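sry for the spam today, last one i promise. C-alpha cells for design, 293 residues
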C-alpha cells in the first residue's frame, strides 16, 4: 500500500499536469478561432477556382497540347503522394489518421504495380513514413509555423511539384490531408491534384451551371491559372490542417484535463481512506496499551 507521502506526491504531480493541459487547451482554443476563420475564408475561393477550371477544361476537352497540370503525362505508372500533417504532437489521433491513410494508399498503389514517391509535409508524417518507406521519400517539408501560414509556403510547394512534373518524375499526384469539419471531427481526405480531377455535374444541377465566355482563349487561361490553382489548393489544405490540428489538440487537452481531475478525485479518496485507516490503527494501539497497563 502506498504511503501518505507517496499519495501526496502523486496528487501534486497530477495537479501540475492538469494545470499544463488546461493551459494548452486554452491556447489551442485561441489559435483555433483564428485558424478556423482563415480556413473558412479560403474554402469558397478554392472551390470556386476548382469549378471555374473544370468549366475551362471541359471546353478544351479532346484538344491536343493541353498543359500537363491538367492532363498529367497521359500515363498512370508513377504516383506522387503528398501527405500533410502537423509538426507537433499532443493532438489526439490527428496525425495518426493521416499516417494510417497514407500508409494504406501507398500499399494499395504498390499492390497494383505502381511506382510510389512520397513528399511529406509536416514533421510527424515524415517521422512516421521514414520508418517504413524511407526509400520512397524524395524530399520533405515542415508545415509553416507561427501565427499565420504564409501563402509563400504553398507557392514554394506548388513550384516544387510542378518542377517534378516537368522533369517527368511522376504521372499522378495525390494530396492526403485532414479536412476540418468541426472541433471534434477532422476527416482524412485524398485529393487528386494532377491530373486535375473534374467534378461531375448531376443532371439536376446541369441547368444551374454558369456559362462562361473566355478572354483570352481557354488555352492561355489554363496555362496561367493551373499553376495558381495548384498553389491555392495547397494553401487551402494547409489552412484546413492548421485548423484541424488546433481543434484536435483542444479536444485532446480537454479530455486530458478531465481525466486528470478524475485521477485526482480517486487519489484523494484513496489518500483519505489510507489516512483514516492509519488513525484508526493508532487509536487501537493506544487503547490496547492502556488496557494492558
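last one done:
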Amino acid at each position: 500500500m502506498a504511503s501518505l507521502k507517496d499519495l501526496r506526491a502523486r496528487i501534486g504531480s497530477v495537479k501540475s499536469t492538469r494545470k499544463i493541459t488546461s493551459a494548452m487547451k486554452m491556447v489551442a482554443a485561441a489559435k483555433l478561432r483564428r485558424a478556423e476563420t482563415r480556413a473558412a475564408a479560403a474554402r469558397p475561393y478554392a472551390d470556386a477556382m476548382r469549378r471555374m477550371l473544370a468549366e475551362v477544361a471541359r471546353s478544351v476537352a479532346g484538344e491536343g497540347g493541353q498543359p500537363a497540370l491538367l492532363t498529367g503525362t497521359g500515363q498512370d505508372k508513377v504516383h506522387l503522394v503528398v501527405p500533410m500533417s502537423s509538426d507537433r504532437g499532443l493532438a489526439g489521433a490527428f496525425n495518426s489518421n493521416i499516417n494510417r491513410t497514407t500508409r494504406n494508399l501507398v500499399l494499395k498503389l504498390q499492390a497494383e504495380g505502381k511506382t510510389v514517391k512520397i513528399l511529406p509535409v509536416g514533421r510527424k508524417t515524415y517521422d512516421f513514413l521514414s520508418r517504413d518507406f524511407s526509400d520512397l521519400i524524395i524530399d520533405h517539408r515542415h508545415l509553416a509555423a507561427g501565427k499565420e501560414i504564409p501563402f509563400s509556403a504553398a507557392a514554394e510547394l506548388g513550384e516544387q511539384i510542378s518542377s517534378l512534373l516537368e522533369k517527368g518524375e511522376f504521372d499522378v499526384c495525390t494530396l492526403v490531408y485532414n479536412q476540418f469539419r468541426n472541433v471534434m471531427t477532422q476527416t482524412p481526405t485524398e485529393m487528386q491534384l494532377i491530373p486535375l480531377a473534374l467534378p461531375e455535374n448531376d443532371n439536376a444541377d446541369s441547368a444551374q451551371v454558369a456559362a462562361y465566355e473566355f478572354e483570352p482563349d481557354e488555352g492561355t487561361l489554363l496555362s496561367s491559372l493551373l499553376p495558381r490553382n495548384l498553389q491555392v489548393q495547397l494553401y487551402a489544405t494547409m489552412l484546413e490542417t492548421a485548423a484541424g490540428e488546433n481543434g484536435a489538440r483542444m479536444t485532446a487537452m480537454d479530455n486530458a484535463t478531465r481525466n486528470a481531475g478524475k485521477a485526482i478525485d480517486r487519489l484523494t479518496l484513496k489518500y483519505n481512506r489510507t489516512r483514516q485507516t492509519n488513525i484508526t490503527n493508532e487509536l487501537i494501539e493506544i487503547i490496547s496499551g492502556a488496557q494492558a497497563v
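Confidence is low (pLDDT under 50) at residues 202-207. ok im logging off now
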